[in-house]
Design the sequence.
């Protein structure tokens, strides 16, 4: 099967993406449907080099082609007689950008396996506060909320509690979006955004309408200027990596010399908005399944207290955790990947406690 | 490592260290008063023949706080009395950043529910430093006032302790299998994830201790390796009878073990857990069963072979 849209330089990639968004914009105006699949960018958190990516895994085979640009690669992925093309930008060693103009389901399924199966590759895990930070510079014209209680059983919930909430809002301006969030907050309902729609208008001209998802996927819904989209993607990376640096500065270790010790770093503290059943939470946190993907053994069990000696099955890093009904403490050791903190916090928001807070030594992180 | 022969010295050290963190789940008196942890178990050279070895040194922008943790009221005051001889010179000789040419030193002694006995022993030895109870509540009970008036007002009020302290120091010389077992199991699982499944006991001990391993006393390293080896032998190896034949599983089924995941050839162990969530989940359940068994079995406190 022929592979389309092979490019050999960054200039060619920008041309291709710009032509696609312009074509889609015209097509939407004339026929109210896209002419091509939307331009999308996925931000991947990477702790490995390109040479560590396996050429074959789970039915996928990957051919990596270099381009004139030292940091840009074309990935031709083959699976079940289907070919698709991804453009991998590794200019930021820690946060890779994967651009594509392919069917969403195909790329999502591939990236899901890519980030799930490979140690050292993960998606972003943006809590709703971070999505709200992204809204500050743009017009927020919509959002998705997805909350599903996955730790407790239906019987464990009180009459006031929500066990599942899915909501999608699109609007022309930002007023409805703010109004609905205010309404949910006032009533104590979950406001855990999993995506946000941002409109960038400059001098009355549309630059882009992008949808940013919690996992680092950013779709160009409408656009005229690909540079603006890439600039926005880079801003997301900057926001995320600033917090990543803060988290990784707090990783803990004992440093010793001549039998005396110094302690570096501090634990992270989660403050739950209401008392939690720590045994049920520990069970979910230690069985290595999605969404937490952490394994652990429970010890030092006392009334309303337990500790977990854990392993992040995504990276193989160790971590330790203390659980109490009102709090959890996470100890991230030296060299462990800070994305674990993002993953734990965001998933606790999505599946247990939408109003959970997180602190380090300097105060609240998000 | 401290030689105090009571297992909860480590816990008390952790409790006192925790006071210097910005926690919501535990009292944070020292953090609020502006103190940070400077050194744990430093050795200060007083003169050619004398060394002082306090438990913890905290520093604020104006004060140095020397803390001694006394989980047992024995030999309480003999060396502690000399802590008042510490000066800025001793800090600078250790390479600790000085806050002033002549920093002001406070010495505090932390005790648990033994504080009433402890204070009598200290009094006999002529020691009158502030003495703080840290147990179910935290409060200064006896001794002089702190030179740092901030500390005096903070420790003056009784504050109930609800949670447990941070687990900063995970082991010491007196650690039991109960203390070490979760970290051995954690390391085994990390080996599965990173595909480093073949190992010797000492490799495991080194991994558990991390960066501090190379600086530890050789005696401590040997002791830790011995304890880990005993844990592996007792719980991770299929028992054999006197002539070396593996005991039938039926007879040993009652005791939770991890022997189906581990094998040993000469001194080399191999861990085998399939790379599938169901296998990892089964391993986790067996590990938790074992941890429950260890924590409720009084025999384990004395390292008695369960066979």
Sequence:
């Amino acid at each position: 099967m022929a592979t389309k849209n092979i490019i050999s330089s960054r200039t060619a990639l920008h041309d291709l993406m710009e032509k696609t968004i312009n074509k889609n914009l015209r097509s939407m105006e004339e026929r109210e449907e896209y002419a091509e699949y939307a331009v999308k960018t996925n931000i991947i958190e990477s702790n490995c080099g390109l040479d560590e990516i396996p050429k074959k895994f789970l039915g996928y085979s990957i051919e990596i082609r270099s381009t004139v640009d030292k940091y840009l690669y074309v990935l031709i992925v083959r699976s079940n007689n289907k070919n698709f093309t991804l453009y991998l930008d590794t200019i930021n060693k820690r946060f890779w950008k994967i651009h594509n103009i392919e069917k969403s389901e195909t790329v999502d399924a591939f990236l899901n396996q890519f980030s799930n199966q490979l140690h050292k590759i993960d998606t972003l895990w943006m809590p709703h506060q971070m999505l709200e930070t992204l809204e500050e510079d743009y017009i927020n014209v919509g959002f998705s909320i997805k909350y599903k209680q996955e730790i407790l059983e239906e019987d464990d919930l009180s009459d006031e509690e929500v066990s599942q909430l899915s909501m999608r809002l699109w609007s022309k301006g930002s007023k409805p979006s703010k109004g609905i969030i205010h309404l949910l907050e006032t009533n104590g309902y979950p406001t855990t955004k999993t995506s946000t729609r941002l409109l960038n208008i400059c001098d009355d001209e549309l630059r882009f309408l992008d949808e940013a998802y919690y996992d680092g996927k950013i779709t160009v819904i409408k656009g005229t200027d690909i540079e603006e989209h890439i600039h926005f993607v880079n801003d997301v990376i900057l926001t995320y990596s600033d917090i990543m640096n803060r988290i990784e500065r707090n990783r803990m270790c004992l440093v010793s010399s001549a039998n005396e010790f110094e302690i570096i770093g501090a634990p992270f503290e989660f403050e739950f908005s209401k008392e939690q059943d720590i045994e049920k939470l520990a069970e979910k946190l230690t069985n290595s399944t999605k969404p937490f993907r952490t394994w652990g053994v429970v010890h030092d069990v006392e009334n309303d207290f337990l500790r977990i000696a854990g392993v992040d099955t995504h990276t193989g890093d160790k971590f330790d955790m203390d659980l109490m009904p009102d709090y959890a403490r996470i100890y991230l050791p030296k060299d462990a990947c800070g994305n674990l903190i993002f993953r734990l916090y965001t998933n606790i928001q999505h599946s247990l406690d939408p109003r959970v807070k997180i602190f380090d030594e300097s105060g609240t992180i998000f | 490592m401290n030689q105090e022969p009571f297992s909860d010295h480590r816990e008390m050290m952790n409790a006192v260290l925790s006071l210097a963190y910005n926690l919501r789940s535990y009292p944070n008196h020292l953090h609020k008063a502006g103190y940070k942890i400077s050194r744990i178990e430093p050795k200060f050279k007083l003169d050619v023949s004398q060394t002082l070895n306090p438990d913890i040194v905290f520093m604020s922008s104006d004060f140095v706080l020397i803390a001694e943790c006394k989980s047992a009221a024995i030999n309480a005051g003999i060396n502690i009395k000399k802590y008042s001889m510490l000066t800025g010179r001793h800090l600078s000789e250790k390479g600790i950043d000085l806050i002033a040419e002549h920093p002001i030193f406070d010495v505090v002694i932390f005790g648990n529910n033994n504080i009433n006995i402890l204070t009598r022993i200290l009094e006999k030895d002529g020691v009158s430093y502030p003495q703080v109870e840290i147990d179910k509540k935290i409060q200064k009970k006896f001794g002089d006032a702190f030179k740092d008036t901030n500390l005096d007002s903070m420790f003056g009020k009784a504050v109930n302790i609800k949670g447990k302290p941070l687990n900063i120091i995970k082991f010491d010389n007196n650690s039991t299998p109960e203390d070490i077992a979760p970290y051995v199991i954690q390391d085994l699982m990390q080996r599965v994830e990173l595909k480093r499944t073949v190992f010797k006991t000492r490799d495991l001990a080194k991994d558990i201790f991390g960066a501090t391993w190379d600086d530890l006393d050789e005696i401590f390293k040997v002791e830790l390796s011995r304890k880990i080896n005993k844990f592996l032998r007792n719980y991770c190896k299929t028992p054999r009878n006197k002539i070396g034949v593996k005991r039938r599983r039926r007879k040993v089924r009652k005791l939770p073990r991890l022997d189906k995941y581990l094998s040993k050839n000469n001194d080399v162990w191999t861990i085998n857990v399939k790379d599938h969530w169901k296998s990892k989940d089964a391993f986790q359940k067996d590990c938790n069963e074992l941890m429950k068994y260890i924590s409720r079995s009084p025999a384990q406190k004395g390292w008695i072979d369960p066979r």
